[in-house]
Amino acid sequence: MKELIESLWNDFQSESKTTKDSKSLDELRVKFLGKKGGVTNLLKQLSKVPMDERPSVGAQVNQLKERIQQILTERMNSLLTNENERKMQAEGIDPTLPGTAPNVGTLHPVSQVCDQIKSIFLSMGFFIADGPEVEEEYYNFEALNVPQHHPARDCQDTFYLENNQLLRTQTSPMQIRTMEKLKPPLKMIALGKVFRRDDDITHSPMFHQVEGLVVDENVSMSDLKGTLLLFSDMMFGKRPYRFRPHYFPFTEPSAELDIQCIFCQGKGCRVCKMSGWLEILGCGMVNPKVFDAVKYDSERYTGFAFGMGIDRIAMLRYGINHIKLLFDSDIRFLRQF
Ligand code: DAH
Fold first, then answer.
1. Banded pLDDT at 155 (limits 50, 70, 90)
2. Is the predicted pLDDT of residue 151 greater than 80, yes or no?
3. pTM, entire model
C-alpha cells in the first residue's frame, strides 16, 4: 500500500508539471481525484489492509488527497489568470484604462412637478382625468361661456384646425368633458399639453397646464381658498398670499392667487418684476352658465375651478429663467435635476 501511495504521488508530480492549460489540468483532476481516479481507488483498497495498519494507511491516503487538491487549486488559479491575460492581450483589451461611466437619466423637471401636483391633489381625494389635445371649439370655448365673437377669445391666440377643431388653448375643456360623463359630487384634476400662438422667453407655443374642478352641494369660496392654500403650502411652503380679483368667462367671481416671491421674500426682484408677488394660478366659482351647458342643476350645485401653468411652476421652483430650456432637451441642462 505504501508503495502504491508513493508511486501515485510521483505520477501526479510528473504529470502535473506538463499540464499547460486549464483544460488538461481538469483532466488530471479527474484522473487522480475523480470517481474512478487513482486516489479513490486507493481508498477503496483500504478494506484489504490489515485492521491494525488501517488508521495510519488511511491517514496517508487522505494526506495525499489533500496535497493533490491543494496543488491542483493553486495551479488552476495561476493558469486561469495567465489565460485571461493572454486572451485580453489578443483582443487588444487594456484593463488599466479608465472606464466609461454609463449615462443615467433623470425625470424631466416638468414631469417632476406634474408628479408632485398629482400626489398633492390625490392626497386630498381628487381623481385624475385625461382628454384630447386636438379639441373641438365647443369644449374649448362655447361650453365654457366663450361664444364665437367674445373678446376673451383674443386672450388665447389659437391654432385653429379644420372642421371646428383646434389645439386646445387650455385644460379647461376637461371640466366640460368630465361633467358630461359624471354626476356630482366630483373632485377632478386634469394635466396636459396646451397650445397658443405665443413665443418669447416666458411663453412657448406648447406648454403644460393643470385644471381642477370641484362640484357638490354647498361648495363655497372658502372651500376654494382652503383647498388652494393647502396646495400652495405643500408645493411652496407656508408663505404670505393674496387672492386678487380677476376675470375668467367660466368662473364668477374669479381670482388669481399670488404668493410672496420665493426669490426675494417680497422685497422686489427681476423674477417678480419688482412687485414682491408671484402669480401661481387662476380660479373662481363655476359660472352657472357652465353648469347649464352640461345640464347640471345650478340651483342645487355649486363648485369651484382652478387652472395653473405647470412649466411656470417648474421655472419658479428651480429658478429657471428661460422657458425654452425646458423643451430643448439639452443633456447639460437636464442633468441638473
Ligand atoms: N384656463 C385658464 C387659462 O388658461 C386658467 C383658469 C383660470 C382655469 C381660472 C380655471 C379657472 O379653471 O377657474 O388662463
1. low
2. no
3. 0.72
Chain centroid, CA 233 distance in Å: 24
Nearest CA to ligand 1 atom 5: 307
Distance CA 18, CA 24 (A): 9
User: Residue 287 above 80 pLDDT?
Assistant: yes
Distance (Å) from CA 308 to ligand 1 centroid: 7
Which CATH number is 109-334 given?
3.30.930.10
β partners of residue 256 = 244, 282
Instruction: Tell me the CA–centroid distance for residue 296 and ligand 1, in Å.
Output: 20
The atom of ligand 1 lying closest to the CA of 169 is: 4
Each as own residue / partner, the long-range contacts of residues 229-235 (CB below 8 Å, 24 or more positions apart, any chain) are 230/124, 231/120, 231/121, 231/124, 232/257, 232/259, 232/280, 234/120, 235/116, 235/117, 235/120, 235/313, 235/317
